[in-house]
Amino acid sequence: MTIDLSQIITNLQSDVDAADSDTSMRDILSLLHRGKKVTELHKWYDSSGVLPIDSAYNGYMAFTKSDNTMRVFNDSDLRWAELDSSYTAAPSAPVYAGENYGYSMGGGSSPYTQNIDNYSFASDGNATNVGAMDNPDGTAVWSGSGGGSTTHGYHLGGSPVSPFSSPIFKFPYTSGTPISDTGNDIVASQMHRYGHYEMCGDRTNIYIVGGYRGPAYPTLANKNTILSFAATSDGSTITDYGDLTAAKRFAQTGTSETHGYSAGGYTSAAINTIDKWPFAASANATDVGDLTAPSYAATGASSSTHGYIAGALTPSATNVIEKYSFSVDGNSSDVADLFEQKSQAAGASSTTHGYLAGGNPATVTIQKYSFTADENGTDVGDLAFARRANAGTHY
Q: Looking only at Cα atoms, what is the longest distance across the chain?
């Protein structure tokens, strides 16, 4: 974020110009301090040397009396920077990113499960079971999609649920339980599955991208729809937001601050297209680039600058990690490898790393890879038992 004080400075300068045309900005700050108005900026100190270095002061401004200077603290780079018209704060974490936990929801492989596990972003380690989806027919759920608001995680669709339906489950991030059926379906009297294995959206709105839907064989078909619902509605009203460039299932999604992305996927064969659509208003997706090779059933993650896809079927299993830019449309690049080859794994994103938990062939492995350096993935913990086709979310 850029803090532009040029107009404030201009206005303050004009207030003293009549009395003293040579008054400097530093003198103005001193006047502010003597007038006690600096108390509105939280605190003042004798010198910059005694300013506290503590993340609790993020965003605070302080006045230092020894040099008549205002400073602002940013916990991203742990500094009190002098506040002037050119100060640029370190970028804040994107709304999409998680700072606490990643989640694995459902999935399995004989047996499948309704369980929801979480694992810490702060330290590597094994996952903990925090509850189970309240599936109406009591069976396991797999091949659904992940979703997330600022307060709740969502599991969207999946199978097998009988009769044909695509329920929306939710749970509070802070406690993990209770995990409940919202009573809403993605689409009435149809099964929606094989969409994407990570959450997509700006946490205000939740997106369900592509997938495989229909009431029964042989009418099951790939979908080109981008569906959206306001998190506050829990899916009571779902909007057909726009269309992908092709009907597909098993695609990876990405989320920037302004756009959603869908990369790869399966039509009648694997494809390599990277699609992009805006969050600002309903619109169809556009083709903005290509993956290094056609692929599907990959796991996605998003940093503040790039979308990532990890593992895939291309059509054979691969351990490749690719990334594509959010700021400039274009092709992806191969930047690293996973610890082990996986597809259909639950995806999650912290502020610094991408994660995938489980995967096909069914595994307990939780892997992570860096957003700040193009490095190979590492094994950082285990799920409770081996699973695949599990959905992911994070906060």
A: 85
- Core vs surface per residue 256-287: b (16+ CB within 10 A) or e: beebbbbbbbbbeebbbbbbbbebeeeeebee
Q: What pairing do the DSSP bridges indicate for beta strands 69-74 and 252-255?
A: unpaired
Query: Dihedral sign, CA of 245, 193, 356, 339?
Result: negative
Listed by start position, the domains of the chain span 6-82, 101-394
| Adjacent-strand bridge partners of 356 | 347, 367
Report CA Rg, the chain.
24
Of the candidate CATH numbers 3.20.20.140, 2.40.40.20, 3.90.1640.10, 2.120.10.80, the domain formed by 101-394 belongs to 2.120.10.80
C-alpha torsion 11→16→20→26, nearest 10: -70
Q: 156 has which bridge partners?
A: 145, 168
* 251-297 pLDDT per residue, tens: 999 999 999 999 999 999 999 999 999 999 999 999 999 999 999 99
Task: Convert the pLDDT of each residue in 181-197 to its tens digit.
Answer: 898 999 877 888 999 99
Q: What is the mean pLDDT of the chain?
A: 84
Kind plus residue range of the DSSP H or E element containing 25: helix 25-34
Q: pTM score, two decimals? A: 0.77
Do residues 207 and 226 make contact, with C-beta atoms less than 8 angstroms apart? yes
Q: What is the dihedral of CA 75, 78, 79, 84, to 10 degrees?
A: -30
For the chain, how many residues are written?
Answer: 395
Residue that has been written with the tokens 């064969």 in this structure: 269
Check: CB of residue 177 under 8 Å from CB of residue 232: no
- Return the closest-CA partner of residue 391 out of 202, 196, 179, 165: 196
334 strand-pairing partners: 322
